[in-house]
Design brief:
about 775 residues, mainly alpha, about 80% helix
C-alpha cells in the first residue's frame, strides 16, 4: 500500500513537472515560429532587392540600346558634317558664315558623344558589379542548401534508428502499464476496506469522546463544588492558602537571579585564579621551593591558598541551586526563599576562610620586606598592599553581615526583619558592593606598582614575571566583575525595595506591609509536593520481576563471576551486531534512493518515447520531402511566392541581354526549413529532460550526503561530550594526585625532621654513655690504686 502510494506520488510529481515544462516548450515553439517569420521577411526583402537589381539591369540595357542608336546617328551626322565642310572649303567668301555654324554644331555633337560614352562605361561597370554580387550570393546559397541536405539526411537516419529501438520499449511499457492497472484495482479494493474500517473506528471514537466528555464534566463539577475548601475567615489559617500573585514579578525575579548567578560565577572564578596564582608565586618567591625549603609561614599560606575552591565553589553552587528551584507558578520573596539559606552559610564559611588567610598574606608580605634585596621603595609599596588587603577583608566581613541578614529572613519569625527595612538593607548591600569594587581596584593598583618595581630587580626570574602577570590579569577581571555587580544591584534597587506582588485569598490588602496578610513559606513546598505527587500518578508503573526469579538471578550473579564476563561479552557482541545492522540499514537506504532515481529516469524515458512516437506520425510527409532532397532544387532569383519560373538576366559587356530560364520550389524549401527547426526543438527538449533527470539525481545525492553529515555531526557532538567528561575526570584526578603528593611530601618532611631529631637524641645518649663509661673506668682505676 505504501509502495503504491509512493509510486502514485512520484507519478503525480512527474506529471506536475511535465505540466510545468509544457509552457516552456510552447514558448520555445512560439519563439521558433517568430524566428521563421523573421527569416521569411528577410527573404522577401532580399528578393525585393534582387528584383530592384533586375529592373535596374533592364533599364540599363534599354538605355544602352538608346545610347548605341544615338551614337550611330551622331556618327552619321559627323560624316555628313565632314562632307559639307569639304564642300564649303571649295566655295568662296560668300559662304563663310555657314561653315562656322557647321563646325560649332559638330563640336557640340562631339561633346555630347563623349559624355554618352562615359555614361555608358559607368553603366557597364555597375552591371558587372551587380553580376558579381549575384554570383557570390548564388554560390553561398548553393553551399547552404547542400549542408542542409546532408543534415536532413543524417536526422532522417537517426529518426529511423530511434523509431526501431523504441518499438520494443513501448511494448514493455504497455505490459508494465497493464500490470500497474491490475495492482491499482487491488489497491482500490484495499482502500475501500480501509475506508470502511475507518468509518467504524470513527463511530467508536465518537462514542468514546462523548463518554469522556461526560466524565470530564462530572469531574469538573465535583472539583468546583467539593474540593476548593479555602478558609478566609481566620487570618492565621488564611496564611496557609495558596496566594494569587503577579507572574511578571516572578519572571523578573528569575531573570535577576540568573544574572546574579553569572556574576557570582565570574567573581568566584576571578578569586580562584587570584589565589591559585598567588600560591604559585609564594612557591617561587622569596625562595624557590624546587631548590630550597619553604618557610613555615609560606608553607601554611600555600596550604590555605590551595583550599580556595572548597570555599568558593559552594557559594556559586548554592546560588545556582536556588535559581533552579524557582518556579513560575509561585511567588518568591525573602520569606519564602528557604533554599537561599545555604548561600548565607557557604558565604559565611568563605569569609571565615578569608579571615584565616589574611594573617598569612600579611606575614608573607613581611617576609618579602625582610629580604636583603628588597629596596625601600618596594617595601613602601608592600606596606600599601598590606593596608589594601586589610581593607578588602573588612569589606568582605561587612558584606557577609548583610548577606546573612537577607538569607535569614526565611528561617522564622525570630530571625525576620520588618519588610519596611528591606530598602535600607539593600542600600547598604549596594554600598558594600561599591566598597568592594573600590577595594579590589586599590589592591590591583598597589599590586601592579609593586610588580613593576619587583621586575626591575636583578633577582626577578622569568617564571616570577609570568606569574605576576597572571595575578595582575586576574585582579583586572575581579575589578570588572565587581563593577558589573555594583552596577547591577544599584540599577535594580527599586525592584528590590518594592513589596511583593501577591495577595492572600479573602483579603484585598497587598501583602508585604502587614504580617497577618503574608503567606506562609510552607505553602510553596506544599504546592511543589502536590505537583510532584500528581506527576508521579501519571507515570506508568515500571515492569517488575517476580521475587523468586529476582532471588534466583541474584544467586546466579553472585555465585559465579563467569556469568558476568559472559554477559559482558554478549553485550559487546550485541552492540557490534547493532552497529553492523545500522550500517546495513544506511547502505540499503542509499540503495533505495538510487533505485528511486533510476525509476524516475525510466519514467521520464517512457514519456520521451511517447512524445517521439507522436512525432513519428509525421514520417510519411518527411518521406516525400526526402524524394525532393535527392534532386536539389534551384533557388529562385526573384521573391515571387507562386511556383512560376522567372527568367534570370545575364548581360555582356557589349550591352546584349541573354535570358536563361530557371525554376524554384518554395513549398519544398519552406518544408525543409520547418522540419529542420522542428528537429532542433525536439533535440533541445531532450537535452532539457536529461538535464532535469541529472538535477533530480544530484538532489538525491545531496540529500543522502546531508543525512550522512547530520549523523557525523551527532557523532562529533557525542565525542566532544565524552572528551569533555574525560577532561573533567583527568583534571579531578590531577587535583587529587597533587593533593596526595603534597600530603605525602608533608609526611615525608615531618618524618625526616623526626628522624633527624631522633638521630640527635641518639648521638647525645651515646655521648652520655661514653662519658659514663669513662667515669666508671676512672673510678675503677682509683679504687685499684687505693687498694
Amino acid at each position: 500500500m505504501t509502495d503504491l502510494q509512493a509510486k502514485y506520488q512520484r507519478l503525480a510529481s512527474e506529471y506536475s513537472k511535465l505540466r510545468a515544462q509544457i509552457p516552456v516548450l510552447k514558448k520555445a515553439v512560439f519563439d521558433e515560429q517568430e524566428n521563421q517569420n523573421k527569416l521569411k521577411d528577410v527573404l522577401k526583402e532580399k528578393e525585393q532587392v534582387i528584383r530592384k537589381y533586375e529592373q535596374e539591369i533592364d533599364s540599363l540595357s534599354f538605355r544602352n540600346q538608346q545610347l548605341s542608336k544615338r551614337v550611330l546617328f551622331l556618327q552619321d551626322e559627323l560624316e555628313s558634317a565632314e562632307v559639307s565642310k569639304k564642300k564649303s572649303k571649295k566655295g568662296g567668301d560668300e559662304h563663310h558664315h555657314e561653315p562656322q555654324n557647321s563646325v560649332g554644331a559638330s563640336s557640340v555633337f562631339g561633346e555630347e558623344l563623349k559624355s554618352k560614352i562615359e555614361e555608358n562605361a559607368k553603366l557597364h561597370k555597375q552591371v558587372q558589379e551587380a553580376e558579381q554580387m549575384y554570383k557570390s550570393k548564388l554560390s553561398s546559397l548553393e553551399e547552404n542548401l547542400s549542408k542542409l541536405q546532408l543534415e536532413s539526411a543524417q536526422h532522417q537516419e537517426v529518426l529511423n534508428a530511434t523509431v526501431q529501438s523504441n518499438k520494443t520499449q513501448t511494448d514493455k511499457l504497455q505490459e508494465e502499464k497493464a500490470m500497474l492497472e491490475v495492482r491499482l484495482q487491488s489497491v482500490e479494493q484495499e482502500m475501500k476496506e480501509a475506508n470502511s474500517r475507518a468509518q467504524i473506528a470513527e463511530g467508536k471514537l465518537d462514542t468514546v469522546s462523548t463518554e469522556l466528555q461526560f466524565r470530564l464534566e462530572n469531574a469538573n463539577r465535583i472539583l468546583s463544588t467539593k474540593l476548593p475548601f479555602i478558609d478566609t475567615k481566620h487570618r492565621h489559617l488564611n496564611s496557609l492558602n495558596v496566594p494569587t500573585h503577579d507572574r511578571k514579578h516572578q519572571l523578573r525575579v528569575k531573570e535577576l537571579v540568573s544574572h546574579s548567578v553569572n556574576l557570582v560565577k565570574e567573581l568566584t572564578q576571578g578569586l580562584s585564579n587570584f589565589y591559585t596564582y598567588s600560591e604559585q608565586r609564594s612557591k617561587i618567591y622569596p625562595c624557590d621551593s624546587s631548590s630550597e625549603p619553604l618557610s613555615p609561614v609560606n608553607a601554611k599560606y600555600c596550604q590555605y591558598l590551595h583550599e580556595n575552591l572548597g570555599f568558593l565553589r559552594p557559594v556559586e553552587q548554592s546560588l545556582r541551586h536556588f535559581m533552579e528551584t524557582l518556579k513560575e507558578d509561585s511567588l518568591t520573596t525573602l520569606e519564602t526563599a528557604v533554599e537561599v539559606q545555604a548561600l548565607g552559610t557557604h558565604f559565611r564559611k568563605l569569609v571565615d576562610y578569608l579571615n584565616r588567610l589574611l594573617p598569612y598574606q600579611l606575614l608573607s608580605i613581611d617576609e618579602e620586606c625582610a629580604l636583603s634585596s628588597c629596596p625601600s621603595t618596594l617595601e613602601a609599596k608592600n606596606r600599601e598592599l598590606y593596608t589594601s588587603l586589610k581593607k578588602l577583608n573588612a569589606v568582605f566581613n561587612k558584606l557577609e553581615t548583610y548577606i546573612s541578614i537577607i538569607t535569614s529572613q526565611s528561617k522564622g519569625e525570630s530571625f525576620r526583619h520588618p519588610p519596611g527595612s528591606y530598602g535600607s538593607i539593600f542600600k547598604q548591600l549596594c554600598s558594600c558592593l561599591t566598597d568592594l569594587h573600590e577595594a579590589v581596584k586599590e589592591v590591583s593598583k598597589h599590586y601592579n606598582s609593586k610588580v613593576s618595581l619587583e621586575h626591575q630587580l636583578p633577582t626577578a626570574t622569568q617564571k616570577l614575571k609570568t606569574t605576576d602577570e597572571c595575578i595582575v590579569s586576574s585582579l583586572v577581571t575581579l575589578v570588572t566583575t565587581t563593577g558589573k555587580f555594583s552596577a547591577f544591584l544599584t540599577g535594580n534597587q527599586d525592584f528590590f525595595e518594592e513589596p511583593a506582588g501577591y495577595r492572600t485569598r479573602g483579603s484585598s490588602v497587598v501583602g508585604g506591609l502587614n504580617d497577618i496578610n503574608q503567606s506562609n513559606p510552607i505553602v510553596a513546598t506544599f504546592r511543589q509536593q502536590s505537583a510532584a505527587y500528581l506527576s508521579s500518578l501519571t507515570r506508568p508503573s515500571p515492569e517488575t520481576v517476580p521475587h523468586k526469579v529476582a532471588l534466583q538471578n541474584r544467586r546466579i550473579l553472585l555465585s559465579s563471576a563467569e556469568s558476568r564476563d559472559s554477559l559482558a561479552g554478549q553485550i559487546t557482541s550485541f552492540q557490534e551486531k547493532v552497529n553492523k545492522l545500522e550500517q546495513d540499514k544506511e547502505h540499503w537506504m542509499l540503495e533505495l534512493q538510487l533505485l528511486q532515481i533510476k525509476y524516475e529516469k525510466e519514467i521520464q524515458k517512457g514519456k520521451e518515447l511517447s512524445k517521439k512516437l507522436e512525432q513519428t506520425e509525421n514520417a510519411h510527409s518527411i518521406g516525400s520531402i526526402q524524394d525532393n532532397i535527392d534532386q536539389p532544387p534551384v533557388l529562385p532569383l526573384s521573391g515571387a511566392t507562386d511556383s512560376t519560373t522567372t527568367p534570370s538576366v545575364q548581360t555582356s559587356l557589349l550591352g546584349k541581354l541573354e535570358v536563361t530560364p530557371g525554376g524554384s520550389d518554395t513549398d519544398t524549401r519552406e518544408q525543409l526549413i520547418k522540419n529542420h527547426f522542428s528537429g532542433r526543438v525536439n533535440e533541445l527538449t531532450s537535452q532539457l529532460q536529461t538535464a532535469d533527470s541529472k538535477a533530480v539525481n544530484f538532489l538525491a545525492e545531496v540529500k543522502a550526503l546531508h543525512k550522512r553529515l547530520k549523523i557525523a555531526e551527532r557523532a562529533k557532538d557525542g565525542a566532544q561530550e565524552d572528551l569533555r567528561v574525560t577532561s573533567q575526570e583527568i583534571t579531578q584526578l590531577r587535583d587529587e594526585l597533587q593533593t596526595t603528593t603534597r600530603s605525602y611530601e608533608g609526611q615525608l618532611s615531618m618524618m625526616s625532621e623526626h628522624l633527624a631529631g631522633m638521630n640527635e637524641k641518639l648521638a647525645l645518649q651515646k655521648d652520655q654513655i661514653d662519658e659514663l663509661t669513662v667515669q666508671l673506668s676512672l673510678a675503677k682505676g682509683a679504687k685499684k690504686s687505693r687498694k
